[in-house]
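Students often ask why we bother encoding 3D structure as a string. The short answer is that it lets us treat folding as translation between two languages. Here is a chain of 388 residues written in the first language.
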Amino acid sequence: MKNEKIVVSKTAHSQRLKSFRMSAALMLTTLMLVVAATTGATAQTFTTFDAPGAGTGAYEGTFGGGINTAGVIAGYYIDGGIALHGFVRAANGKITTFNVKNAGTGKSQGTGGGDINTAGAIAGWYIDASNVRHGFVRAANGTITTFSVKKAGAYQGTFGITINTAGAIAGEYLDANNVFHGFVRAANGTITSFNVKKAGTGTYQGTVGGAINTAGAIAGSYIDASTVHHGYVRAANGTITSFDAPGAGTGYGQGTIGGGGIGGGINTAGVIAGYYVDARNVRHGYVRAANGKITSFDAPGAGTGANEGTFGGGINTAGVIAGYYNDASDVYHGYVRAANGKITTFNVKKAGTGAGQGTADGGINTAGDIAGYYLDAGYVIHGLLRTP
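And here it is in the second language, the structure alphabet:
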């Protein structure tokens, strides 16, 4: 759970994949749990779910991802053979699974669903039989269109991250030299790649794609030649502004993580949610206003040691942020930060309490409904929906 962009993964770009085993046939289960917030202030309703076919071994299971205004959730699951499959969960709880036609079926291959827009279109990525990544968009009627920014080799390629109301997709691709580049794909299929001027050009350096809002502004981060992270926002006209959160470290692997995926987001007003890593390798959340003002915050109970602290999350039109943090015992917990700065923490009742277990959220819609997942005591992953 210490990767910058993927909670469960322990190494970069593993896409939450670890040791997996074959499961027995898994029946769809949906459990309704009503629990109190850990602050005791308000009651919250949690619905947990498992996609049909999701594995039941350690690090197998169901990942809830983006959630749209209608309460439809997009995500993916890992089966007992370590293959990935996309799913969409309707507001009534019905789950439909899907696979991109050219997705591989071997270990660590398959379809990874990601974000969903108001029309029900899903942006994601898939890994083919040669372990090359490609982007895809799945329309609400189930039609899937695939795309690749440039030709790539094994463990390289195109990663679709987020999609806005107009159907524009933001993401990143890893080139043949293992350098990252951002891209935006318009609804008509036109792809524009971009790089932040000060981004490094070494292995696993460069411009990392991020979240995209309704105006087409993209929030992400770039990695410089010293492998330090910095935030950026790219306006719809292509103008890029970089920024650093006050207190961000300047050492290897430290710095400011912009929007994008579970690492953060950008809302319609241009407000960005993210996190930064300080000189002691502690994580802190931040919110960047459209005028550039940055406010940092820490969730109550967040750890203060290396690789501990508060991670950014999704942000909705009201400026409410949904994220997660890990404590001093490396247990993960969800939090919601209101626009006025008030933070409410929470845990799914059946989440594990051991190191690397717990609750993780990130997708939040206009109503404040949150999509995410949790790891139980056996490190099995389950999807979750939290309603206020």
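Translate back mentally: Residues 143 and 260 are 25 Å apart (CA to CA). Keep this in mind for the problem set.
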